[in-house]
Amino acid sequence: MNKIEKLLNELCPNGVEFKSLGEVANFRRGSFPQPYTKTEWYGGEDSAPFVQVADVGDNMKLTETTKQTISKIAQSKSVFVPKNTVIVTLQGSIGRVAITQYDSYVDRTLAIFQSYKIPINIKFFAYVLFMKFDEEKKKARGGIIKTITVEEFKQFQIPIPPPSI
Q1: How big is the CA angle at 32 (ends 158 and 106), to the nearest 5 degrees?
Q2: Does any domain span residue 85?
Q3: Based on the structure, what is the number of domains in the chain?
Q4: Which residues pair with 66 in a beta bridge?
Q5: Residue 9 lies in a domain
Q6: What is the rounded distance in angstroms from the CA atom of residue 18 to the CA atom of residue 155?
Q7: Is 4 inside any structural domain?
Q8: In terms of C-beta density within 10 A (0-12 exposed, 13-18 middle, 19 or more buried), how is residue 2 classed?
Q9: Beta partners for residue 130, in sequence order
Q10: Does 107 map to a domain?
Q11: Is the dihedral of CA 135, 153, 128, 86 positive or negative?
């Protein structure tokens, strides 16, 4: 029995509590000015990394550099995300999770976890999200989640062990 199993047996003899994402964290979607094709929204002086679905790897990290950068003029129309923020893809390749390694701006196809309603380790939280989506993919027809609404996402049940674990 490893250390975590021993702590779980000792502190949670009846198992851990489960809570919905809506009870655990505050999150929102990213944003980007429209239309996407407007060239002035990209690059230029003082541009910053702009995270889209393709920039979220399968290793719970962002790619080293984003495919696009967001221009200074477009930054006020997007959502700034500081380093060490948990994000998850909600469109395209649904369910990719990352803890951001650098400050960036985030597209509307991703959820950004801005704050937590309970004490929780963000590495644990990111891992639990990753595992939850993996479980949901196994249930989905063809192993692919085609879409997910914010309301469905808020209802995801995740395990919450005591902070001492």
Answers
A1: 40
A2: yes
A3: 1
A4: none
A5: no
A6: 11
A7: no
A8: exposed
A9: none
A10: yes
A11: positive
